[in-house]
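Limitations
The structure tokens in this dataset are predictions for the assembled complex, not deposited experimental models. Users should treat interface geometry with appropriate caution, especially where small molecules or nucleic acid strands are included. An illustrative entry is reproduced here so readers can see what is and is not provided.
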Amino acid sequence: MKRLVPAAACAAGLLCAGCAHVQPPQPWEKAELARNVMKMDTDPLESAFFSHIYFSKEDSKGGDGVGGGGCGCN
Amino acid sequence: MSRNAIPPTVSSRQRRALPRGAAAGLMGLALLFAGTLPARAAAVGDVAPNFQLPATRDPQSGAPTVRLADLRGKVVYLDFWASWCGPCKQSFPWMNDVQSRYGSKGLEIVAIDVDTHSDDARAFLAALPPRFRVAFDVQGVTPRQYAIRGMPTSILIGADGKVLLVHNGFRAEDTAEVEAGIQQALAHAQN
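Predicted assembly:
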């Protein structure tokens, strides 16, 4: 019991890390993300319609589009 | 209230146990985080890390390899590419052109394929046959060594083995700048 408390505190400290040590995929590991099925908008026409309706309702424009850094390319 | 209802004495050793355990846990956390710190990128001015990679898609023992140390004395243009990388399709014809124009002046282009399945590269290389060296890094050792930030990344290494230029991505409008860097490096190497 005497040794259990510091051991438990140690374990709790490590568990607090959670998934923090898990790194996001590196740029050269993004092969799966580059596949066509991974695209958020597979149908450009559908995306265009959606954007038109959305921004008509919002009465504003912009803010959408690819950030350019998602796949790591360019 | 009973006479024995006195709070149990806790020894000073027991009192120190909890903060000690917590400190050990925090140190373990710190070590975990230290392991996730990004490796220092191959920055301009650093000596380019050496590597040895197979030059064929299905390496067997005795298959030819590409070693950076063997290319010391030449200006090396290192390009990290993959079959799934769009801009790489544009970069290959340009690299073919650059190799043919500057090869006689001491330029060696080494294109490292980072596909985890080198079969994926087969169609790419069939469509865009390279006239420069291609190496295959299935394990992803060299991109980690050079700590590249995007795909594709090209690194110009001078004849002395030091990094001269690190370029992220491939865009047609940037080729002039990169080519100027190559010309400068070749001129410097010949002196």
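Some entries come with short summary sentences. For this one: The mean pLDDT of chain B is 88.
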